[in-house]
Design brief:
Distance between the termini of chain B: 45 Å
Number of strands of chain A: 0
Number of helices of chain A: 15
Radius of gyration of chain B: 25 Å
Low-confidence stretches of chain A: none
Oligomer: heterodimer
Number of strands of chain B: 23
Mean pLDDT of chain A: 88
Structural class of chain B: alpha+beta
Largest sheet of chain B: 7 strands, mixed
Helix content of chain B: 25-40%
Chain lengths: 336, 520
């Protein structure tokens, strides 16, 4: 297993190099000069050229690449063209918000999605099965922005139970320690702030979790239905095992592989930032940061966030593979 | 009680507890929450590029020597300067400065600080190079007297001094924080900077020692809310007190504005702006249909200006009659008579006088992106179709559009200008001086020695009344040439909760000052 992980980590290097080259050239191929974009329609050529010089955009692309790569080796992701702040620092400022949201969304999705899938599969074509299938179809098909708006209208505007957007109430600001708002609220003894942070987390989590829970539910149901028809299930039943043991230890365990893949990949995607959800809920995460950067042609930020995203994606897929080994002895043997 | 029961009870109690937490009325009434779409680029006058959010915060944290007087913004008043005189040749400005003013870090404001700030911006801020480079010398006469000498007469210089780039910084704080000054800005303004969290908020605190008197609010919280519909919900729910129409053409749709006007909890403040949006011709082109004056006049008469203002903007934009908006101090009232009136029949006969068969014209109508520009383009397209001209709309991403425009690769395009300082110079010189034709998005005016000389004279004449008359003539000369069809000027719209009072909305540039604001 250790050598498997090591091999995968080594394979990470060429992947990251390719990502780097692609994203570095892509951002420069898309039309639109950052200085022009940052200054807006009113600017003169003189102003644009002065800004280009200030941002070192008048250097050749090769030289820019050389400076960027040598910087990367010492952990320097460059500075944002828009704000002039180090990109690494700006990413680190936003990462906790994204992690907080995506970890919770994945947990909620697992807590709801898997049991629903299992219950549906053990009672195929029952009323419960029909209802959950319709609900999960809606969950899979409904665009995030629509679900977000509906939830905001119901729970914030009409019922007034939850806040519309943001990470904590403006009147109960949470001082930043770790960047994880709830934790920071508790650490600084600001219990009202922590509570408000929990409330602010509910709606965006629900939106993110809804899609994943619905997908998970449908997948687990389908694979489970297949698995429950297999010979070894019949054998287990014939041996007189309790129904619960048959379903959970034999059925579910063998249905979990695709679920692990989905959860892993979706989790990686969420860590890369759920652009729509973060934008609608004014959530200060990575997705929104990257989206703004693309609009502004903020090259170093686009490069930095893409690299982090790629790294998280590859690392998550390694974890998924390791989990495969844990769940399936055949895979474990192949890993060596 | 088991742990699960406890959790369930907590979940039920959560909303109730929170409403208790929200109920700190006193703090709420002393705190103003302002929604903005993104973080300020920087709170540093030394690098400010007229970006709206940072500029507004700068003007609330810092002071400038002079400022425009509310509510009509046609005359300057002293802020850190109490009075000033301008030499007859318009090159030397003598300022008398306010005494006893302190920066928020407790250090004293004086003429040295002004010299330090202006020289600092001159070296660090390429955005204002064209105007700050005119500063030849700044002499400290005494702690309360300052002499600024320009290399050439530039009466709009005072207007530049009212801009965020010319805000006076604390020299002590600049030396202390170095390149981290943007994260620790210190000025003399009514609010001092407290904290900022990326993509979350910027918090300002009242400066109790402010020289015009302590502000009525205790703090201002700028909340960063990128999505327009979320901003609206927050305003309706009371989560924010003020929503501004940043980037006039992409904020809240006209029908939403109507809905908000009907909401008793919300006030809608509308102010005329100095922004102009136009359909412009490529005036430097010597061939093509629009090198003919009659063809340009035909297009100008083909557009249903009032229909556009009502149909697309629902009254949230105003008519523009010429190269300046009617709220400019240099606006020539004669423009109202000279402005083309909607008359499709006249347009058709002008085209035939020009010898142009409208069906032979197949125009590409270039425009910025976004639904509102799309609606304007569609409206103009329909007007052109009424006189027999086929136009295809090309909504292009801004950098590409700028490239086409400055290279002159177009016949007609939708364009516009938001002046970043309050002076006719900000529209006229850059827009119509032929030597600047391809240096920015301009009207690409052809060389015209008489008009060019007039524009430069108007720009440089120190006597304001004489200047005004010169701009009157400039406007007439430009209007006679019909360099474009002036379509509309979007109003500055600020939504506030009904209990917000005393807000001052500047017209050019559109920035709010919160010193006089209170909540009831």
């Amino acid at each position: 297993m250790a050598s498997f992980i090591l091999r995968r980590l080594i394979a990470l290097i060429p992947v990251m190099c390719i990502v780097l080259v692609i994203v570095f050239s892509l951002v420069r191929i898309i039309p639109g000069d950052p200085a022009t974009t940052l200054l807006g329609p009113g600017a003169t050529q003189q102003q644009i050229e002065a800004l280009r010089a200030q941002l070192n955009l008048d250097e050749s692309v090769i030289l820019q690449f050389y400076h960027y790569v040598t910087g990367l080796f010492v952990g320097d992701f460059g500075v944002s063209l828009k704000t002039g702040q180090p990109v690494a620092q700006e990413i680190l400022q936003r990462l906790p918000a994204t992690i907080e949201l995506s970890v919770l969304a994945v947990l909620v999705a697992i807590i709801f999605g898997i049991p629903i899938g299992v219950l549906s599969a053990t009672r195929p074509n029952s009323l419960f099965d029909h209802v959950t299938r319709v609900v999960s179809l809606i969950g899979v098909s409904m665009p995030a922005f629509l679900l977000a708006l509906v939830l905001q209208l119901i729970f914030a505007t009409y019922l007034g139970w939850l806040p519309v957007s943001g990470r904590f109430s403006p009147y109960l600001p949470v001082e930043r320690v770790t960047g994880f708002a709830i934790l920071d609220g508790l650490l600084t003894g600001n219990l009202d702030g922590a509570l408000s942070a929990v409330q602010h987390l509910i709606l965006p989590t629900a939106v993110l979790a809804a899609f994943l829970a619905a997908t998970l539910g449908r997948f687990v149901r389908n694979t489970m239905l297949d698995v429950m028809g297999e010979d070894f299930i019949r054998t287990a039943k014939a041996k007189g095992l309790r129904r619960r043991d048959v379903v959970l230890n034999h059925g579910l365990r063998n249905s979990l592989l695709p679920a692990v893949t989905i959860v892993g990949l979706k989790f990686a995607e969420m860590l890369g930032g759920a652009i729509l959800t973060e934008t609608i809920f004014a959530w200060p995460g990575i997705g929104r940061y990257m989206f703004e950067a693309i609009k502004n042609r903020d090259y170093p930020v686009i490069q930095g966030t893409t690299l982090v995203f790629a790294l998280l994606f590859v690392l998550t897929s390694i974890i998924v593979d390791v989990l495969y080994g844990v769940l399936d002895p055949r895979v474990r043997r192949k890993m060596g | 009680m088991t742990i699960w029961k406890r959790i369930a009870a907590a979940a039920v109690a959560l909303p109730l507890l929170a409403s208790a937490a929200y109920g700190q009325d006193d703090a709420r009434l002393k705190t103003l929450v302002v929604a903005v779409p993104s973080d300020p680029v920087s709170l540093e006058p030394g690098t400010n590029r007229a970006e709206p959010i940072g500029s507004e915060i700068i003007l609330n944290v810092f002071d400038t020597l002079v400022a425009w007087t509310a509510p009509d913004f046609k005359a300057l008043e002293g802020r850190l300067a109490t009075s000033w005189t301008v030499s007859d040749d318009g090159k030397v400005f003598d300022f008398k400065l306010r005494e006893g003013v302190k920066f928020q870090d407790g250090t004293a404001f004086d003429a040295e600080a002004v010299k330090f700030s202006l020289e600092r911006t001159k070296t660090t801020n390429p955005y204002v190079k064209a105007t700050f480079d005119l500063i030849q010398d700044i002499t400290v006469v005494s702690p309360t007297e300052l002499k600024v000498t320009l290399s050439a007469a530039y009466p709009a210089f005072l207007s530049i001094l009212a801009q965020p780039q010319a805000a006076i910084v604390s020299p002590t704080a600049v030396k202390k924080y170095g390149d981290q000054f943007a994260s620790n800005p210190v000025g003399t303004g009514p609010f001092s900077f407290k904290s900022a969290q990326a993509d979350t908020n910027v918090v300002l605190e009242a400066n109790p020692d402010y020289f015009r008197g302590a502000p009525k609010l205790q703090q201002i919280i700028y909340r960063i809310i990128p999505d327009a519909s979320t901003r609206r919900l927050e305003l309706e729910g009371g989560g924010v007190d003020i929503v501004q129409q940043q980037g006039q053409l992409s904020a809240i749709a006209a029908e939403d504005i109507e809905a908000l006007k009907a909401n008793a909890d919300v006030k809608v403040l509308e102010t005329s702006s100095q922004i102009i949006r136009q359909l412009e011709f490529n005036n430097s082109k010597t061939d093509g249909p629009f090198s003919n004056l009659k063809a340009r006049q035909a297009i100008a008469h083909a557009i249903d200006y009032d229909g556009l203002l009502e149909g697309v903007f629902g009254g949230t934009a105003e008519r523009v009659y010429g190269p300046l908006t009617s709220n400019s101090w240099a606006f020539n009232p004669k423009m109202k008579e000279m402005a083309p009136k909607y008359d499709p029949d006249l347009a058709k006969s002008l085209l035939s006088e020009a010898g142009i068969d409208p069906s032979s014209l197949n125009l590409k109508l270039y425009s910025f992106q976004g639904p509102l520009w799309g609606a304007v383009a569609t409206f103009v397209q329909a007007n052109l179709a009424d006189i027999g001209i086929t136009a295809t709309i090309e909504q292009t991403e801004f950098p590409a559009l700028r490239g086409l425009q400055t290279a002159g690769q177009f016949d007609v395009a939708l364009d516009g200008r938001q002046p970043w300082y309050n002076d006719p110079d900000a529209h006229i010189t850059i827009g119509y001086l032929s030597s600047l034709a391809d240096t920015a998005m301009t009207f690409r005016m052809p060389k015209d020695e008489e008009l060019d000389a007039l524009i430069l004279k108007a720009q440089q004449t120190p006597d304001m009344e004489a200047r005004k008359q010169l701009y009157f003539t400039v406007q007439e000369k430009i209007a006679e040439r019909v360099p474009g069809a002036y379509l509309f000027s979007p109003k500055l719209i600020v939504f506030t909760r009904a209990n917000v009072e005393g807000l001052v909305v500047n017209s050019a540039p559109p920035l709010n000052e919160y010193w006089s604001v209170s909540k009831k």
